[in-house]
Amino acid sequence: MDFKLGESVHGCIIRLGVDVDLYTGNALMNMYCKFQSITEDVVSFGNAHEVFEKIPERKFGNADMVYLGSVKKVFDMMPHKDIVSWNTVIAGYVHNGMCEEALRTVRDIGKSNLMPDSFTLSSILPVFAEYVDVSRGKEIHGYALRHGFDSDDFIASSLIDMYAKCNRVDDSLRVFRLLPQLDVISWNSIIAGCVQNGLFDEGLKLFREMLTAKFRPSSLTFSSIMPACAHLTTLHLGEQLHGYITRNGFDKNVFIASALVDMYAKCGNIRMARSIFDNMDSPDMVSWTAMIMGYALHGHANEALLLFQKMKMEVRPNYVAFVAALTACSHGGLVDEALKLFNCMIEDYGISPGLEHYAAVADLLGRAGKLEEAYEFISKMHIRPTGCVWSTLLSACRVHKNIELAEKVGEKLFQIDPENIGAYILMSNIYSSAGKWKEAAKMRMAMKGRGMTKKPACSWIEVDNKIHAFVAGDKSHPYYDRINEALKVMLEQMERKGYVLNTDDVLHDVEEEQKRNLLCSHSERLAIAFGIISTPSGTTIRVTKNLRVCVDCHTATKYISEIVGREIIMRDVSRFHHFKDGKCSCGDYW
Fold first, then answer.
1. DSSP structure string for 30-56
2. What is the dihedral of CA 572, 575, 579, 584, to 10 degrees?
3. Within a 10 A sphere around the Cβ of 8, how many other Cβ atoms?
4. Which NCBIfam families does its entry note (predicted)?
5. Minimal CA–CA distance to 480: which of 414, 431, 529?
6. Cα–Cα distance between 191 and 320 in angstroms, integer?
7. Is 105 exposed, middle or buried (0-12, 13-18, 19+ CB in 10 A)?
8. What ranges in 417-508 are assigned the alpha helix state H?
9. Which has the closest alpha carbon to 342: 327, 297, 331?
10. Residue 218 to residues 42, 98, 152: CA-CA distances in angstroms?
């Protein structure tokens, strides 16, 4: 990696007059391309980091352009070029994100009486993936089929990746299933493609197929599959993968370690996440951000901010790191700290705030009851607020029962994002909790008129390596009678300790007794009761819910944790709640 020596050898080649030699020219271009590669900062690696990395349009360093300029200069001065020469220049353009130049160069190959080969195609396919241009990608696929390149490992993997990034996973799977021979590269591509498109179960199924077919997973395999465990909160499977990673010596790989930190944090085991983080030799930006966001989601705001301060001494915080730190402030109610961070990000680090930063601060102000301040903050954003940003304030209006501001915010939301089902549901709930049943009915009718249907509340729990899912009022589970009996017994014990049902969140115009029955059959209660009757005494109960936990279920779970003497970890749509000895880690601030 001695650039100066390389330049000297290049000068010697010119003086000796051997720069006209085809193979020498190709070797020179190859050398400059390799110098270009080692200057690149690694921003993201596979799907494991996608939750934390917002990758902006690539900014090129001066060194990158010097090396690429050298490649192009050698190429232009070569009197004779073969396909290797053309491929080297194309790869250089693609590497630098200069897609139009890369495509133009591919077209120029035909004018020089040469034919693109498999390397040309595998170099150019990522361009169509980047631009989500599936029609042009299909043209390359057709060319590969006509010229017999479709069975080439690199072409196949590039095609799988291209279709996946264009949201055409079915086509990715077809390419994969038609391959005469599979290798680790093709397995990694299809697993990553499924996980990146949210097909987590399919990704895990393919991973098991890969192991059954006796293929040894690589570091990229684990980086790709870990987010599936994190999303599905399958802690047991994640622990099994961790064991495999350790036994095969992958645990020192910074990308895999970061994925493990993310997985454990999202599966509710924040202590294990921190243990892995502390054992990393040199954490990168993704590792720091994963750990800070983990603390944020578990409500450990002070630990998150301490870690953020420590990170600043090691690496320069980026866009996503500030999102994590502001999220921690939001979940911890740290208004002053958040505003300082927000200003520091702009003034000291030159980072322009994005929607995620604005949403975090607006959410924080709303949770803290500073509704008018939040409204003003959103109104003064330097970019147009999205429905997501206004939704955070609308949700706060519901919590603080401010109907007047809610209507004002709702109006803006419906203008910006008329298909936002969450806005209709929130407005309907706000009216219902205020007893304005006519207005609530209008919202539900508007939803029906637009063909919208509310997502049912669902909770799931992993017991004996199997996921058990429950919806509100669900009587279909084979253990339903035992679950119902356990809930009745616990309710009696809870009431003896002073628990009183809070029916404020039952947003139906029904009798009080019916409201009691509705509350007691919420999905999270069914999942918790099932966990209690299905696991040994003292076992931690881990439940995931697809919506926000309601106020009454939150209170009930505190009582249950005290009565049964267990820790109950609940992950809802916005954060984790650790219930133990009658208390919750959120401090009732969520």
1. HHHHHHHHHTPPP---SGGGTTT---P
2. -130
3. 11
4. PPR
5. 529
6. 25
7. buried
8. 421-433, 437-449, 480-496
9. 327
10. 19, 30, 20
Q: Return the number of other C-beta atoms located less than 10 Å from residue 63's C-beta.
A: 14
pTM, 2 dp: 0.78
Contact 114, 91 (CB under 8 A): no
- Counting Cα atoms < 13 Å in the Cβ hemisphere of 301 gives 19
Inter-residue long-range contacts of 1-7, CB under 8 Å, 24+ positions, other chains counted: 1/35, 1/38, 3/35, 6/31, 6/32, 6/35
Pairing outcome for strands 541-545 and 568-571: parallel
| Residue 362 Cα to chain centre, angstroms | 21
- C-beta neighbour count of 439 within 10 angstroms: 16
* E strands, 472-573, in order: 541-545, 568-571
At 99-131, the pLDDT tens digits run 788 888 888 888 888 888 888 988 888 888 877
Nearest alpha carbon to residue 28 among 78, 65, 80, 71 = 71
Structure tokens at 133: 């241009």
User: Are the C-beta atoms of residues 542 and 272 closer than 8 Å to each other?
Assistant: no
Residue 583's SS3 state is: strand
Q: How far is CA 536 from the centre of its chain?
A: 33
Buried b (16+ CB within 10 A) or exposed e, 177-188: eebeebebebbb
Count Cβ neighbours within 10 Å for each residue of 79-92 and write b for 16 or more, e otherwise.
eebeebbbbbbbbb
- Written as six digits, the tokens of 347 are 């003034």
Report the alpha-carbon distance of residue 170 to residue 583 in Å, rounded: 47
Residues sharing a CB contact under 8 Å with residue 577, sequence separation 6 or more, in sequence order: 299, 549, 554, 557, 569, 570, 571, 584, 585, 586, 590
Angle at 544 between CA 494 and CA 326, to 5 degrees: 105
State the Cα–Cα distance between residues 366 and 374, nearest whole angstrom: 6
Q: Rg of the Cα trace of the chain?
A: 28
Return the closest-CA partner of residue 286 out of 255, 323, 264: 255
Decide: helix, strand or coil at residue 362: helix
Please, which pLDDT band fits residue 153 given cuts at 50, 70 and 90? confident
**Contact criterion met (CB below 8 Å) for 233 and 227:** no
In the chain, what is the straight-line distance between the N-terminal and C-terminal CA atoms, in Å?
A: 53
* Contact predicate 368/334, CB 8 Å: no
Q: Which pLDDT score, from 0 to 100, does residue 489 have?
A: 94
Cβ–Cβ under 8 Å, residues 385 and 409: no
- In this structure, what is the dihedral angle of CA atoms 174, 50, 268, 554, given to the nearest 10 degrees? -100
Given a contact cutoff of 8 angstroms between Cβ atoms, the answer to whether 522 and 472 are in contact is yes
Give all strands of the β-sheet with 568-571 in edge-to-edge order.
466-471, 458-463, 541-545, 568-571, 576-580, 583-584
Closest to 296 in 3D by CA, of 51, 482, 521, 81: 51
Strand partners, 467: 462
Q: Report residue 424 as tokens.
A: 């209709």
For the stretch 388-440, pLDDT in tens is 899 999 999 988 989 999 999 999 999 998 888 888 888 988 998 888 888 98
Please give the backbone phi and psi of residue 20, each rounded to the nearest 5 degrees, phi first.
-85, -10
